[in-house]
Structures
1.
Amino acid sequence: MSAPADMRAGFVTLVGAPNAGKSTLLNQLVGAKVSIVSPKVQTTRARVTGIAIHGGAQIVFVDTPGIFQPKRRLEKAMVEAAWGGVADGDMTVLLIDAQRGLTENVERILDGLEQQGRSIWVVLNKVDLVKKDELLGLAAPLGEKSFIDRIFMLSALTGDGVSDLLDELAGNMPAGPWLYPEDQISEMPNRLLAAEILREKLFLRLHQELPYALTVETESWEERKDGSVKISQVIYVTRDSHKAIVLGKGGKSIRQIGQMAREELTELLERPVHLFTFVKVREKWLDDPARYREMGLDFPKG
Ligand code: GDP
Ligand code: MG
């Protein structure tokens, strides 16, 4: 089976430091929310795909966890998933937060990408926060690196400059048949997407270390005859005190969080959603391979 000459398809991996705006950009490129976003670092835990069709090309974008020097096991798994995404993609796009600039961490990521021996494109993101001359000052040293083919400047938040990037990416995809049905916007199963949506609301609502010490799983998914869907989700925390915070006084906090998640799920699934959330204390979930599997991560030894 050979593809028509004008059909193109491929995988583009988005990498960068935590909070560079990778997930925000993915959602802009796809034109729908497929990856969760919060002001907190390490919101994205595993590879998330979003699929766009543009200029005859089907582009499968792979959003990745931020790259940094990991200490804990979950962090190691996340950073490994990000580098795995780079190895698997047809192209790599490195996002740099233009306001933060070339931090030590960004320099380390650049070194790592150079060692992969393939050229990359760079996006200077958050141009809405930075003056033009600062941007040019940031682009200059990057332009001297031979493994960087192109540099784009855009705002993933406002969408300014995103269509230029999309045009160029589409033109650069390898020839070949499309990989997914035309109307598919993600590879992620609905159960995982639903868990991510609740986790986003928890990240937005809870403070300090708590978001990092919890995980969400969809336990059951029941399509009902009346066209609605009943979804049960478990929030795993590591301590009783965390459970109390997630629940809030008289369950007020979890009710509000669940309500936000339910509204978003209703919109996404285009049908009524009955959402049931349970908080369970599981002291050692961060050392449990099954929890990593559920998130789509490999379990790092040690
Ligand atoms: P990720 O960790 O790289 O996936 O970053 P996110 O997409 O989760 O974004 C981190 C934070 O940066 C969020 O609060 C976003 O709203 C914000 N953000 C992302 N892109 C932009 C941008 O272009 N401009 C501004 N002002 N904020 C942005
Ligand atoms: Mg992200």
2.
Amino acid sequence: MAALGRFLSVEGIDGAGKSTQLAWIAQWLKQHSVAFVQTREPGGTALGEKLRDLLLSEPMHLETETLLMFAGRREHLEQVIKPALARGEWVLCDRFSDASYAYQGGGRGLPREKFIALEEWVQGVAPNKIQPDLTLIFDVPLSVSQERMAGGRTLDRFEREATDFHARVRAAYLERAASEPQRIRVINANRSLEEIQQELAEILSAIL
Ligand code: ADP
Ligand code: TYD
């Protein structure tokens, strides 16, 4: 049987520098001849991208928002993530379930039990649960993310939220990282690109 690929997800509050580092990680994987699929949530499938458009623009009830995130995830797992891993490829995913905990849970206050139920439904139950082998959370203070976001582009429904929303999202990410230290690595992204990328190269080399 072919070796199973590795599942990597990348997270962080808006403006932490996630997209910049994702592009660098993709480049690193190419340079090291790792076959991988780069994808994102919400999104990653034709249906998921339609859901993404709705999620980023339409006001909706918090539970509707959460259910749509997980509905898109179900489709994404089936159509993209599981097949890639089964082919022995890596999956580099821009956000996954930890984002639901952070945004819908931390940011908007949906109780934790709801996520446990949805995660079990969509990702399965241990030992067959599908979840990232490694999650990198790019962490910066709010003042830094806000400075980095102030680039003039149009902000989506989440990026437009108030500072205290983003502070709760950040706190939820850090709490989740503390509860799963074997899977989640918090990267101090309030450093130069070179310093961050040196740490990333060490982490990636260790799992190659
Ligand atoms: P995100 O995807 O987390 O919203 P981006 O990667 O788009 O963040 O970065 C937001 C802005 O911050 C971009 O202009 C990017 O060039 C800049 N940036 C990203 N990382 C750093 C860094 N370590 N130091 C300085 N600027 C950064
Ligand atoms: P993002 O990847 O940050 O888009 P971009 O970098 O292009 O702006 O993701 C879009 C937003 O979706 C982001 O603000 C976080 C939010 N989100 C949730 O609220 N819950 C989730 O489960 C996921 C996957 C994303």
3.
Amino acid sequence: MSNTIVVGAQWGDEGKGKIVDYLTEGTDVVVRAAGGNNAGHTVISGGNKYVLHLIPSGILWPDKLCVIGNGVVMDPLGLIEEINKLRGQGVKIEQANLLISETAHLVMPYHRALDVAREARRGDKKIGTTGRGIGPAYADKVERCGLRAILLTQPEVLESELRDRVAFHNETLAAAGVDLVDADTTVASILEAAKILAPHITNTTVALHEAMKAGKSLLFEGAQGTYLDIDHGTYPFVTSSNTTSGGACTGSGVPPRKIDRVVAVGKAYTTRVGSGPFVTENENIGDMLHNMGREFGATTGRARRCGWLDMVLVRYAVMVNGADELAITNLDGLDGLETIKICTAYKLRDKVIHYPPATCEDLAICEPIYEEHKGWVTDISGVTRYEDLPALAKAYLDRLAELAGARVSLLGVGPAREQTLVVG
Ligand code: IMP
């Protein structure tokens, strides 16, 4: 039995879905513990492309148990859409392989409306949210007026609580001058969703502890990345949950003492969606990757902002998450470059710093300090063993590990399951 947490070392979209999918083979239970359907994990398997938002990617394996933990905010309508789509692709989703925590909070249509209204009001200072209602749903949770998944098993209580919340949040929507949410339509759609989801809702903390007692292994599938963490990220341009490894414990009820391994996933370069400072952002890298058909968001389809690998961020992520292993994805994205830059430190005013500063205002004026590496200028997407990589690619990875203070254990050279190499 060994329990592993997979987290993102950057701003999300690091390719965690693929790494989780790879690690799932040796695990029994895959858990989502934070975030909601703002996440978008693309997994390519057997020539098919699957996009997962709320459901752990372990669902693509027929014999694995998948758990949506208490730390997740779950949009019942979004989840049903996702279930239907996956079932249409032949994926088995039953009561036995998908459990939802009864204390996970629900994302309701008014949360989505509030998310969009708040973003509009922020104007130039908008966060660039996914518009999925994530922030308002977590705000209700912390404000102690949220609705939890257990209510989906109690239709009468659900209806009265829901009518109360719709009325309450409509006051804010009215003040913002935007369309109100219709109570009857909302109640009807959520009650319908409740019938479908109720059989999956249970005490997942107990289920996870029972699985551990039975000697099963757990894999925690991180969503978003370290720099979107509400505490450790580039606040306020962050999401509303703890996306770092600690969030896996609070968001599932599995205590820190039960965790054996933390794998931080990072791209061989850096990307970001949404607003906020990005020290190594580089338009040429963005154009190159977009022309290769890469770096478009799985949830929103937005073109991601791109730049050189920022090891100031990865180093800090390794520290905050307690990662001793790095999984580096998308190494093949750098195949065409003669020269590759790595940011090793920032210059902030007249000081050289090795960790990100606390404020976005400071981060925005940080200048990257780069070192340059010779590119391998070879297509590595067909390489199946680490030993067969060009020496310059190995040198890039060695330097990256040295700067991060963690070893590179896994490597992605393309989107398919077979394009994940184990670094020996
Ligand atoms: P929210 O999570 O929708 O509130 O969005 C807050 C910030 O997190 C925005 O910058 C989003 O673009 C970003 N974000 C949320 N989920 C993801 C993700 O899965 N990948 C990358 N960025 C994300």
4.
Amino acid sequence: MSASPATTNATRLFPMFADLRDRRVLVVGAGSVAARKIRALLDTGASIIVVALHAGDEVAALAGEGRVELVIAAFAEHRLDDAWLVVAATNDAATNARIAAAAEARRVFANVVDDSALSNVQLPAVVQRGRLQVAISSAGAAPMLARHLRARIETVLDDSLGDLLELFERHREAIRARWSDLAQRRRWFERVLAGVVPQLVRAKQHIAADVALQDALGESDGIGAAGSVLLVGAGPGDPGLLTLRALRALNEADVILHDQLVSAEVLALARRDAQFIDVGKQAGHHRVDQDGIHALMVEHARRGARVVRLKGGAPFVFGRGGEELQALRAAGIRYEVVPGITAANACAAYAGIPLTHREHAQSVRLVTAHCEQSADRLDWAGLAQDRQTLAFYMGVAGLERIRDRLIAHGRAAGTPFALVENGSRPEQRVITGTLADLPEVARTHAVRSPALLILGEVAALAAELHWFGAAPLEGRCRALPTPSLPLDRAA
Ligand code: SAH
């Protein structure tokens, strides 16, 4: 019975997109499967007739709203009379087969749900961006494969493509008039697509996009290269915490300027032939300084590159993102910002510590106290108040100072803390304890950067709610058997 692979369905389906507006489409069956197909048909403006013995809730509701015509009856051939397409979605195989045969005889295209042999039309998996559609077909042979691909394509196509299509359509006549030669027109499109117009559409600057497109039409030789900088948050390390927008930006980048905090796993997702510049690394004797970073961004954008400035966590949380945008603005370079998941958010989540909790904390503060000077500028009395969670960034070196000042301003010595080192990464460690012991515990466990300090009642929940990597290490310094050194000293 089994056909050899060489002879099975060597013919290919012909892909086409059908205009069904005001054309009759018959759907037989009105259960959940039929409802799914009807939903896909509604946007097309087809006039949909549903014939079924019983109607499920969704189809009944659509009929109530007048969006489909519902006929409670058994399928009869005359229902096909004015139809262009029929979808057989009954749960009775014999009925489905009868519908397919009747449709074939009348030259009406038929899709029989989950039966590619009876269907002469397959409904593809679709990725939609407005009126732009990508349809994927496995010829009905492996719909799951098509669905899998659909999910992957979803991640790479920007949401603004539908708007871009509308923009090009509005100027279609003008574009054709300007470039009657097809090859010239194609080259013009390529230049426009690599330039500022899609960026403006993505930033929802629709009027500016329109103007830029018209400018591009006016230029004799197309548009000069328009470089730009995307300030992108890379998140805490786990590449799964990148936003889709960040992933797309990494896929399109010509130049990537990245910090030390950006994980190798995230960089591995970027376009292979992009130029990677590690501005966090010791270059020669010192790492590239902030002015140097500004200069690099401007230089590459000016020569037309799509620059991604990739930062650990969120670019606007202790990331000097503001300064970088000011430098770009001063240089007249276009920019966009893609937020990332900041360390406080990620470390808390991956340690099982809710940052707020109805019983323990009504507010969260993101704080940095990396040196004496920055510590002096903080409102310690405010920070010492209870019922709030504090997330200290860059704090590993200043834990003593943090403990002393908080306790001096009245925060309870028994307040729980968690130190999250390498949050969200395979080597993540969580160390918990109470405020009084904070610096000693950190020293005992040799906590290293990058680490985030979470302080507040919620930190104690890690013991119960942890789920990622190793269980939290409890650091009760004073309860531990004391190492010999202090004893020797005492002697
Ligand atoms: N813009 C970044 C923060 C940069 S400051 C963000 O939004 O996360 C650098 C500090 O962030 C580190 O010293 C550390 O305190 C914290 N940090 C960043 N990534 C971290 C990680 N994966 N685990 C723990 N702390 C992290």
